[in-house]
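# step 3/5: fold
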Amino acid sequence: MAITINIYYTGEPGNARKFAEEMTAKGIVQAIRAEPGNVRYEYFFPMEDMQTVLLIDAWENQSALDLHHASPMMAQIAQLREKYDLHMRVERYLLDEKGVPASDQAFIR
């Protein structure tokens, strides 16, 4: 079952964005995207909260996510989180295998 994890990184002014930029510059983001089972790994910046970065991290299944968590990249990510003194809020979602209900289809363009 596909899993999507939203991670909200927050910290001192500018630190969450610097974290995302360094993750990208060091090639960690690209390496994660290349891992087997990764569906999406993408950063977003909420308009109303300039101190937060949202990571949308999606995996084909729990096994792929477990392999990612056991990878050496997790130590690099943890080191950067410490460097920028970031805090996290995490939301986890499972794919609705039934798809978008017909009652909601009218709202999709």
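# step 4/5: annotate
The chain has a mean pLDDT of 95.
# step 5/5: archive (pending)
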